[in-house]
Amino acid sequence: MGKINILQPNVFNMLAAGEVVENPSSVVKELVENSIDAGATQIDIAVEQGGIRKIQVSDNGIGILKEDMRTAFIPHATSKINAIDDLDSLSTLGFRGEALASIASVSEVTLISAAKSQQTASKIVLSGGNVIFEGEDSRSKGTIITVENLFFNTPARLKFLKKPASEMRQILDTVRTLVLANANLSITLSDENGVVLSHSSGELIDAICAVYGANTVDKLLKIEPSESIKVSGYVSKVDFTKPNRTYQTIIVNGRAVEDASVQTAVEKAYGDYLMKRAYPMFVLDIIMPFDEVDVNVHPRKSEVRFYDKHKVFCAVYHAVQDAVNASMGKSVLGFDMTKKYGKVAEPQPVQKEIKKAPVQVQTRIDTSALHVGKTAPKDFGFATATPSGFRESPLYIPERPAVYEPIKSEETPQADISDNNIDDVKPAKPLSEPAMIFDGKIIGQVFATYLLVERDDKLYIIDQHAAHERILYDRIADKCKAEYAQPLLIPYKLSLTGAEEEYIEKIMPTLLSLGFEIEHSGYVYLVKAVPSPVVNLNFNKFFGDLFANSLSENELTLAQLLKDSLCQQACKAAIKGGDVLTREQIEQVIRFYVDENGDLPAKCPHGRPAVIALDKRDFEKMFKRIV
Fold it and tell me: What is the 3-state secondary structure (H, E, C) of 48-88?
């Protein structure tokens, strides 16, 4: 007896269902695409318990003939093609004849359809792929198909489904893509709580508005249709990007697909306008000859192959580049010297003989400018914290009490870096609590950017901006707590994709502990309060960066959530390189830069070095005192 078996239809259907029917959202996709192929202009989708309990798709298409009702559920039965050559001119979304058979094999299906050429509607009921009822029913036009108890006969598949809320979010993502790819149709999605998404037939921009909202529409650029391969649609402006490719939709001949070459073409078209790890949002509609694209790549029909990939790449690249360049306007890089200064002088010929001048070696160093710049020191007054945030000040040292103060007398009212002789400066007078005193010797400031401090056998070179930025960052970060939450006058409305909504629910306790107040309202989230230090938070950027972290398995920390916003605030308020400081101001920076262990933090919040230490041995090596 041979070892090769011919699988029975019910076994084959369940195997095929593993490729076609992954979850409720894939069922919705297949059923809606069948409605589109049937010429429907109105499609209504209703689900219960995230589609696990029930999925119902109703349309006003041409319907199914009574004699075709049973045949429709036979594997590889399709009305879309007759021969392999038909794939070269395929204009329908479905063509493999696997969807209905696969869905019916793992669920309970009821199909009612009224064909235009027949007076009565027909009904068929299947359970696990077996027909249990056939007869007549009442329906005036179109088809209604109901899928219940998905994976009821395959417990192993059922246990891999997510919670109903998560499955519902995936269905919503799928329907959003279908709406973008079929803007001329009216599509509605509902669940137990009512309408989730509704789009009336219109243009692509209307579909984008229904899916992403009117605020997003204002940030998009229109792509004018190109020749040959017709590329149209919308791309985001250069200052409106996302941290991942979630908001990118590619439509080829009416089919939403995924293609890396098209994504790359779009991103390259932005050129230098695109920041690192920032991705544009786009909805591209590509129309091209059917025989130049192969859609029979995967059972889900989500991938395509182009006959001439380079041709498609160029068409997309130039279409997007034209839209981006037009939005930026014409700009001149460089200077036109002839307009303001007249004709540029011709370069003089190089002298063949160069007269050598005596070389002098400077041995005397002028120390008069060692501690003072060319201009007088700026007035870096101390700022105070306010309920709405922190007042911007070049040298704001927030809320940390001074542990010592310079001695003041009539002879030496205050130590100042304009004093050339540092030895004349009297030492600081300790207060009752001598903690946090930095016992190094302040040498001064060089290049109006770096502070020099000698301690023991080491010379510390401190970047004044990086050090002050670290001080401010640490103080501001301490305010990111629930008790410092700042209510918003107008709550920020957050519309999320399925994956994003699932992720924000996961990290909600962390957000609440930081001072965020977020309320779930229907299918949107309302941000009602934020931590007081980030009351002017850029919500688009913050939540974009937040969801970019969703692919990481690392535990969320404050630095991951708010670092960019806090760093920007601290950086803006910190003293800058080139600011000339008085000795008292240098003392203030050093005093607060030392941590509770008496150490100097090595880096600023951005990760840039803030201090470099050289010991006596390093100097002796440089001057060849030791080898």
Answer: EHHHCCEEEEEECCCCCCHHHCCHHHCCCCCCCCCCHHHHH
Which tokens sit at 474? 């640490």
> Helices H, strands E: what count in the chain?
17, 28
- Could you tell me where the DSSP H helices lie in 119-221? 155-158, 164-181, 204-212, 214-217
CA distances from residue 16 to 303, 383, 421 in whole angstroms, order as listed: 18, 69, 87
Question: Tokens 């230090």, residue?
Answer: 533
Give alpha helix (H) positions in 252-391. 260-270, 309-328, 337-341
Which one is predicted more confidently, 378 or 576?
576
Given a contact cutoff of 8 angstroms between Cβ atoms, the answer to whether 522 and 495 are in contact is: no
439-455 burial: b if 16+ Cβ within 10 Å, else e: ebebbbbeebbbbbbee
To the nearest 10°, the Cα dihedral for 507, 510, 512, 517?
-40
Please tell me what DSSP assigns to residue 549: G
Amino acid of residue 300: R
Confidence of residue 173 (pLDDT cuts 50, 70, 90): very high
Q: How many CB atoms lie within 10 A of CB 80?
A: 15
Reading the block at residue 466, the tokens are 């990086």
**Has residue 61 got a pLDDT over 50?**
yes
Q: For residue 172, what pLDDT is reported?
A: 94
Residue 361 pLDDT > 70: no
Q: Can you tell me the distance from the alpha carbon of 21 to that of 31, in angstroms, rounded to the nearest whole number?
A: 11
pLDDT at 57 over 90: yes
Pairing status of strand 282-287 against strand 248-252: parallel
Candidates 203, 202, 120, 211; CA nearest to 173 is 211
Predicted local distance difference test score (pLDDT) of residue 476: 81
What is the pTM for the complete model shown?
Answer: 0.60
What is the Cα Rg of the chain in Å?
Answer: 35
256, pLDDT greater than 60: yes
Least confident of 78-92, 306-320, 386-400: 386-400
- Determine the Cα–Cα distance for residues 576 and 382; give it in Å rounded to an integer: 15
Q: What is the pLDDT of residues 343-359, one digit of tens each?
A: 434 434 434 443 444 44
CA distance 493 to 504: 14
Nearest alpha-carbon partner for 598 in 485, 456, 398, 480: 456
Amino acid at residue number 484: Y
Q: Exposed (0-12), middle (13-18) or buried (19+): which is 190, by Cβ within 10 Å?
A: middle
d(CA 507, CA 518): 11
CA 43, 49, 52 angle in degrees (round to 5)? Answer: 80
pLDDT at 506 over 50: yes
Per-chain mean pLDDT for the chain: 75
> Given phi > 0 = left and psi -120 to 50 = alpha, else beta, which region is 553?
alpha
Longest dimension (CA), the chain: 114
